[in-house]
Structures are given as C-alpha cells and as structure tokens.
Structures
1.
Amino acid sequence: MTRRKPVRCAGAAAVLAALATFTTSAAFAQLSDGKLKIGVLNDQSGSSSNMSGPGSVVAAQMAIDDFGGKVLGQPIELIFADTHNKPDIASTIATKWLDNEQVDAIADVPFSSVALGIQNIAKARNRMVLISGAGSSDLTGKNCNDTSFVWTWGTYPYANGVVGAVAGDNPGSWFFISVDSSGMLKTVEEATDILQKRGGKVVGLVKHPVAAGDMSSLVLQAQASNADVIALANTSSDLINTMKAAKEYGITGSKQKVVGLLTFIPHVHAIGLADLQGTMNTVSFYWDMTPETRAWTTRFRERFKGQFPAEPQAGVYSAVTHYLKAVQAAGTDDAKKVADEMRKLRVNDFMTNNAQVREDGQVLRDMYLMQVKSPEESKYPYDYYKLVKTIPGDVAFKPRAESECPLINKPS
C-alpha cells in the first residue's frame, strides 16, 4: 500500500499566522505607548522616608516582578522621584511625568497636602493615582474623583479606632498637638467629632510646622491644660520629638494619657517600648499578623537591607498589584476604564482580605486596633504589637451617608 504524504494547508497556516499577528498587535495597541509606566512619588530623604521613601520603590518593584514584569504583553517600567514633602515640587514633578514622560499611574504620595494637589493634576489628564502614604478624608470626600484611590489607611478610621479605645465610657477632656497640615487637621476634626458624640470635650489645640524640632513649649501647654488625654496628630520626627518631650517633662506615666493618632511601626521602634507600652493605635498592616504577612515581609527585607516594612510600603505593593490586575482585565491603560475594573475586583493579597473598593476610591479594608507590648512581652525584633480587635472595613471608615464625595450613592 502506498502511503500518502501529509497535505499541508498553506491557506490555513497563513490564516493562523495572520490571526496570531493580529492578536499580538491588538494587545500591543491596548497600551497607549507600548508600555505601562508607574511613578512612585514620595519623600526619599526626609522625615517620612522611613515610612515610604526607597522602601515604597522596592515594594512597587516587587509587585511588578511578581506580576511577571509585563502586562498585556508589554513591559512595565518603574520610576521614582523625591518630593521633599513640598506640594509645589510634587506638582512640578507630576505635571512633567504626565505631560512629557507618559507616566500612566502615580503611586504612594505621602502627606495629604501633596496628595490633594496630585489628585487634581492627574484628574485633568485622565491618569491614575494610587495613594498609600496619605489618608485625609478629603481625598475620598470633597476632593474625590473617579481615577484616584486611597489604598492603605485613613484619618477617619485611625481617629475612630484610637478615640473609641481610649475614650471608652468616660471620654474626659482632650488636648490636641497637631502638625499644621490639611491631613492632620482633618484627623483632629474627625477625632473631635467622634469624641464629642461620646460626651467628651476638647480643651485645647496647638499647631506646629512639619519637622518643627523642639516640641517643649507645645508639650508644656498641653501639660498645663490638665487634660485627661494629650492626643498627638503628627507623625515621623515630629511625633518622636513630641513623645520624647512628654517623657522629659514627666507626662509619660502620669495621670495624663498621651496617645498618637497616627503611629506607624518605625515610630514605635524609634521611641521604644518602654515609653509606649500599653498605648493603643490603629493599623492597616502589621508584619507579624499572619503567615502571609510574615512571608511577604521576609521577601521585602531581603530586598531592602533587612528593614521591616511600614504600612504605606505594604500598601504600595497592594495598590500596584491591584492596578496591574485591573489593566489586564480592562485590556487597556485608559485610566477610567481601568478604574472601573479596580472597583469591580475585590482586593485580595497578603495584607487584604476580600476588600471592596468604594465609588469614592476608598479601599474598605479591615483595620486593627493594636496595643504596644511591654519590653518584657517582646520576644524578637519588631515584636511590638498585640491585637486588641479587628474593625471590619464597613465599620472602620466614614459611613456612606456622611460622605462629601459626589460619586457616592447615599442611602435614601
């Protein structure tokens, strides 16, 4: 029997090749300039660099690497710049990035005064903002827009968690020391509202500039007020210096309680457990909570000089990862289409459990009320917190009915 030679169908092969070429070309065309470009904008060298800074760049690169380095078949590029915590410098960089350097998304953006300006610049250009380092309620309130997201924390849940825990059934009198910035003053406003609803009263407020240095005069005013609670609405070096002054003047351990409304783990490390033991603070992420957070922290430390991650840095990884998933799902880098996908997709990662992204761009993640351990309770490096309670995301954040964001559909 004569064996027949296989017949090659040149026409079918040509069709398949053309289809493959079309599919590949279509995927390339879905990204406006043949690549996706993300810019991390933060304080690289100043007072908040240990909470975001170079560590946020590392976290963003980890997210890109874990995603495979490409989206829709095209490369993902990461750049970064230092704002020096100055809104004018940040705005200049962001405008240059978006107008001349084809940056598709800006990530991190600590300090609410910086973030509020970046939101407006990006909105005018239909670009994405993934805010991890700032948390003013105005970002998802009256300044909200459909291509901006607040990913990691917020002034409302931090104030809500700490005031609720410290005030209890006998709120007493409170004195606030606050940095003179929109984000922190919003925290004071929200803490005051929560406090007054519980029957407490505010007996004083003093403000200081960022990186003020000596806090002695402010602490002495707070001490002289005889307030039951001295609440600190500052962060970074300002918080550390205020806590040190409180110890120097004998307030720490006295009848007056000193609480921080925005305390990140680098602050606890810098101040020390001896002076912070027993104090409460609200967090969105703690490295030692679960096997997943510990595993991610191990990888982060391997890439970042052995340092432990702060909340904004973990949030950058989470935000960039979710953004890349949404770009893949939307099939485009168009910010509004990607933003729609980001709201459709639930957020699930090492620090987030099935969180909803609300219309105003707020990630309704669970928050955690923590108590700082005593030196005796701490058994290994950065073993600083014990969990008091989990605050569900739909409870932790400002209620829908109280939102000033026009994108929110309020209950009737």
2.
Amino acid sequence: MSPNATPPGRVGSRRGASRPLGERDREILKDIIRTYVLTGEPVSSRTLAKREQHNLSAASIRNVMADLEDDGLLRQPHTSAGRVPTEAAYRLYIDSLMRLRELPDGLKRHIEQRLAGAGRDPERLIATAGSLLSELSQQVGVVTSPAVDDIVLRSADFLPVGARRVLCVLVSQTGFIDHVVVETDEELSREDLLRLSNYVTEKFAGRPLPAVRDQLVDRMAVERAEVDLAMTRALALAQQAVAGRARQDVLVEGTAALLGRPELADLARVRRMLDAFADKARLVDVLSRCLESNGGVRVLLGDDTDLTSELEFSVVATAYGSRVQTRGVKTLGSLGVVGPSRMEYPRVVPLVRYLGRTLSRALSQTAGAAP
C-alpha cells in the first residue's frame, strides 16, 4: 500500500467526512480511470452510458460522478462535462481496485533473451534493463547503479594514459567496472603503477570502497614515516581514485517517449520534466526509497516526493540485487518507470517486478562466474 493511503473501500471527503464506496461507485471509478488512461481526455457520463456496461442512464452515472467528486476522487479540469481522476483516486485504484495482469510468456521470453544478449557485463545488463523498461512501458526507464558504500572491491588496475595522467579501473565483486582518470603531480612509471595495482588488489580485495579509502590514508602515513616516497605517491593516487568515485549514478532511458503526451502539451511543463531528469541526484533520492521493497514494487505519486508532486508524475520501482557467495541477496540499486500519473498500472507494476527479478538473476550469474 502506498504511504499515507486511505484504507481500501473508504475515502476522505473534501467536507471532512468519509463514506464507504459501494460496488457501483467502485466499478464506475475503475471505468473512469481505465478510460482516462487510454484516451487522456476527461471522461463524461455520456461516454460511460453509451457502453451500457453499468446498465445505468447518463443521468444516474452523472449523479455517481458527482458523489465521487465530492469525495475528492474526481475533478473537473475545465468547464466541460468530463471528469478526471485525482491523486486520491489513483491511490485507491492501486491499493484495492485494480487487478494486475500476468505478463504473457512471449514477453517474458523477450525480456530474458534481451538480457541474455547483454552477456555477463553488469553495465550492459543495466543499460539493457533501462531500455526494456522504456520500450515496454512507453514511459521513462530508470536504473540506479550500486551506491559507492555498497561496492566491494575485487581488483584495481592503474594504467598510464599520458605524461601525468593515470586511468584507474576499479572492479567490484559483482562485476561492475568503474574508471576515473586522475591527474598526478609527478609522472609514475609503468612499473610503479603495476606494483600499485598488485598491492591494492592483494591488500584490499573483498573490502567495501569506503574502508579501502580510509585504510589507504592510514597506509600513506606509514609509508611516509618509512620514507618510501614512491609508494606514498602511488597510494595517494589510489586514494584519490577511490574517493573520486561518484556516490551513485542513474541511467535514464526514453525521455522522448513522453513528449507527445497530452499532459506535456505545455512547454513550461516539458522544461520542468527535462530539468528533473537531468538532476541525477534528485532521481537517485526518489528511487532510493524503493531499496527496501524486498522484491516488491512501490508506487510513488503525488505528494510522496517533490518530483512526483511538481510534475504530477508517478514512479513505479523495485530494488534489484545479486546473490553473492554466502551472504544472500545483496541489494545493488533500484529500477522502474517514471511518467505521468495517467499510467497503465495493472501492466506496468508486473513489468517492473519481472524486470527487477530477471536482472537480479542475471547479475547473480555474473557474480558467480567472476574469478
């Protein structure tokens, strides 16, 4: 259930009271939400009556819609006869009204084949997952990389790329590769860098990066006291490389997929959306709320976050991880879709769940194959 959601079957009225929703109210509200998701246009009582699904006249449906509007579940965007769902309506729908769709077997095979095609490279697996999320949901796909505090070092390599420039390649136990180019005060020989690579890998493999960073600082003090200037400079380089690793990054795929939506006809809103997706730290903060989902899917919308409130967007996300040796499943990051609240939740929620589980299995196989 979404945070602060109303208990299923009861809604808070704008007049401060609450009432249980009857079966007729619930069915008409579901019909309005489904219709609005498909068309993007306000839904009128006449539209629903024409389908003869509810065996009610347009006047009777209009009365139900008026009650739902009083309950804060519908609103009238302008002077037309149509109504659209509110944030409270989406919450109620997600929590208790919608029926999730089972992913077709063919779609599952497509996901598995695409991820298998990425091989055993974790970076390619994440990129493929982001592309699949956007492609299959027609929303924006987002995947966060592992946080620096969660990365356990497998190996380190330091390679000269210029007179005073060194490429530092850090490989985690789950196979993620990070690299950064570091400027040095003095040129280090290829032999010095090979010695540093072997030293860091031998001494610090199996330790989290923050611990590696701190222990490098301590080791620098020892080497300085022993007047090993070459090793002191080399360790300073390694410490700079580890400290320079970004806290966490996020991959964003498919922003262009949203540009034709009716909700984004306003150019100012498009600018706000593009600014929001460019703010990686903000996206990471939103997605980090889904890291404790324990394999489940969280839906954030409305005032759950500043981003969803500002854009009237929703985030459907789950955590992904990797089974590492005997420590069980290690959560690495989160993935999901971001888009207007007019989202096809019965299809998007199981899609996000399945992609999270399939990516986790693929990363576990990658970690298991690591030397």
